Amino acid sequence: MGEFLADWYLWSKSLHIISVVAWMAGLFYLPRLMVYHAEQVEKGSATEAMFQQMERRLLRAIMGPAMIATWVFGLSLVFTPGIVDWGQVWPWVKAASVIAMTGFHEWLAARVQDFAAGQNRITGRNYRIANEVPTLLLIIIVFSVVVKF
Predict the structure, then answer these.
(1) Could you give the maximum distance between any two Cα atoms of the chain, in Å?
(2) pLDDT of 14 above 80
(3) What's the pLDDT score for residue 126?
(4) 70 near 37, Cβ under 8 Å?
């Protein structure tokens, strides 16, 4: 298996980067949609139905598949011989950050369900703050992988 992964390393790495970009785009955009949904949309309106549909489609059609692809291709890189030295700190930092990013994704999914059920209790201001979470995690992930601290 290791030889197969080594032969396909550059393909896996490319597909990992593409899926990360797609996932991050969703993680940046969905909280921004939620800001507008929480602040400017009248409950029960056609606009609210449109926002709910946009949020649901973004989550299910783009973010979910991109997150799964990120994990699949990321794990293929982890298991490629000679790529990750678990004796260093950076892979642990990256792993913890990716797990946190996945937790944030799941938190957003729960908020989409809250909006759909008419039970959102989070303010637009709090969604703006939450919108910074993926940025901070992305910075940690990129520096841990590139600088290998």
Answers:
(1) 57
(2) yes
(3) 97
(4) no
2: pLDDT strictly greater than 80: no
**What is the residue extent of each domain of the chain?**
2-147
Phi first, then psi: give them for residue 83, nearest 5 degrees.
-90, -45
Residue 119 backbone dihedrals phi, psi, to 5 degrees: -120, 20
Q: HSE-up of 117 (CA within 13 Å, CB side)?
A: 9
- Spatial separation of the C-alpha atoms in residues 8 and 1, rounded to whole Å: 11
- DSSP class of 63: I
Structural contact between residues 116 and 56, judged by C-beta atoms closer than 8 angstroms: yes
Signed CA dihedral, 36, 132, 63, 112: sign only: negative
Specify the pLDDT at position 1. Answer: 76
Residue 37: both structure tokens together: 């949904």
CA distance 54 to 4: 40
| Interatomic CA distance for residues 144 and 85, integer angstroms | 13
Taking the CA atoms of residue 102, residue 84, residue 90 and residue 86 in that order, the dihedral angle to the nearest 10 degrees is 100
